[in-house]
Amino acid sequence: MSDTGSELDKERQNLLVFIWKKRKILMITSGIVMICSIVVSLLLTPVFRSTAVVFPAATSTVSFSEQRNAKAASMDFGEEEQAEQLVQILQSSRIRDKIVEQFDLMNHYNISPSDPNKHFKLVEKYNDHFLFVRTRYGSIQIDVLDREPQRAADMANKIVDLIDTVKNEMVSERTLPAYEINKRKKEQMENDREFVLAKLDSLAELGVVSLEGRTNLFQAYVDSKSAQEKAEIKKTIDVNMKHGSLFDGLEFIRNEKIMKLEEFMVSYEQAESDANTAFNHKFIVERAVVADKKDKPKRMIIVLLATIGSFVFMVFALLINERIKELKKLG
User: Which whole-number Å values give the CA distances from 194 to 180, 199, 200, 250, in the listed order?
Assistant: First the structure.
């Protein structure tokens, strides 16, 4: 065990001695790399970061049902599921295409319209400059990087505004057809009701009355004193005897249709609300502001990594070179 330790100590000493012997070339090489890395880092374009933070809303609708879920209130914050959905929307082409068009990112990223790989390059650049991350608190952090700090802040805030626009468009694609179906059904039910009411009105004009009214007609016939009055009441009774059953059936149908229409109006009003209301789908925790300090490049880190990396590389290169020379002598 002691032999192994002594061998390791000896190897360390040999390495230090070797580095000391080669100190000049190592210092010159590291110095040259350090100067080059400083120049390169100074030539790199500064990039600024703007950040916005939003919380997803728990619900995207107003419920007309009496059995409404208490957790679906419009003032409630969304949970993990809503946050994941929001991240997917933020990463979608719906938002990306709108940002690309409004801020002319093809030209801004120096991508030629005639480039056969322009879409691939655009998406790659976009993904490098736009980051959407769900935080441990359940919020969504929107980071936008750009060489122009004002543009970075404007794009981040525009994405925040587009959340409602894009999600409402997606919701409308489903709710509008449902609303149109409900609207047609409502109109059909109203037309059926009006048809029955018109039939009842036409029978009423002939003198047909409800079942209770017909009972009163017979009593009125018995109580009538003049022959003329009896004749008029008899005529009304005959009409009611002929059309009374039809009138009763239409009354039953009318009541059924009115009741069904009232019940259906809850579904119709829900569909109408979902289709025609632009909802707010997020809570804005923090809007993006113009950055006053660059995010990249970290020049000191670049210089340190380049210098240390070149030093380590040269040590290994010199060790390998020495080993090769020893093998040649042995050969």
Answer: 21, 9, 10, 11
CA–CA distance, 106 with 39 (Å, rounded to integer): 29
- Label residue 70 by pLDDT band (50, 70, 90): very low
Q: Where are the beta strands (DSSP E) in 97-242?
A: 130-134, 140-146
What number does CATH give the domain 45-174+280-311? Answer: 3.30.1890.10
Contacts of 220 (CB under 8 A, 6+ apart): 233
What average pLDDT score do residues 258-276 get? Answer: 84
Can you give the pTM of this predicted structure? 0.65
Side-chain-side CA neighbours of residue 271 (13 Å): 19
Q: Domain segments of the chain: what residues?
A: 45-174+280-311, 176-276
Residue 79 or residue 149, greater confidence: 149
